[in-house]
């Protein structure tokens, strides 16, 4: 099965920059979006009758928002973490299947001045608890913009960015705790030492061309699914957003055999 995750930073703008070409080329089983920046009715996606569409809109116009397009009808669909503050921002969609849960997430940004760091850290606690409870029932696959570069290898200029939003010790520790709760970072599982592999770049001139980036978009999976991971990629040449898509390929029969 092929999974794609992409923070499109405004789906309408991304559609005008070739989104559908990439979507059709990938022909994914699951295509997950973050930061759609839409309200209901503001876009109509012609994806074909074999794709089901699930959306979670933020109450604030032009802000946040997530979506999942999938060929596989889920057993159930839920939005948010059951917490009022989070539900209003459209950050989480969960699809339940017979053998796993799939979650797309847009983790809150701490903001440049770190004014939202405390909110972010409290949200991370809720999110980890939510995933842990799901994982007690069946394996979990989590994808999205987690808004953190976990290790120094995950961004170009680690020393100068230490303490900045997305690379504070507190945010990195939350990521460590999430992985320690029974999840693997699929990309690092396959490529523990690969450098210069990034999924987000500033809009400042020549930054993306020089690959001065951060890896903040992930596919995490329950440790029990690790044997099922066939490939974990970063499509860094795909334009249309300040983020690029990340891709996961799973062979669930391997996981079952394990």
Automatic annotation (TrEMBL):
This is Exodeoxyribonuclease III. Belongs to the DNA repair enzymes AP/ExoA family. It comes from the Bacteria. Residues 4-243 form the Endonuclease/exonuclease/phosphatase domain. PANTHER family: AP ENDONUCLEASE (PTHR22748), DNA-(APURINIC OR APYRIMIDINIC SITE) ENDONUCLEASE (PTHR22748:SF6). It comes from Paenibacillus glycanilyticus. SUPFAM superfamilies: DNase I-like. CDD domains: Ape1-like_AP-endo.
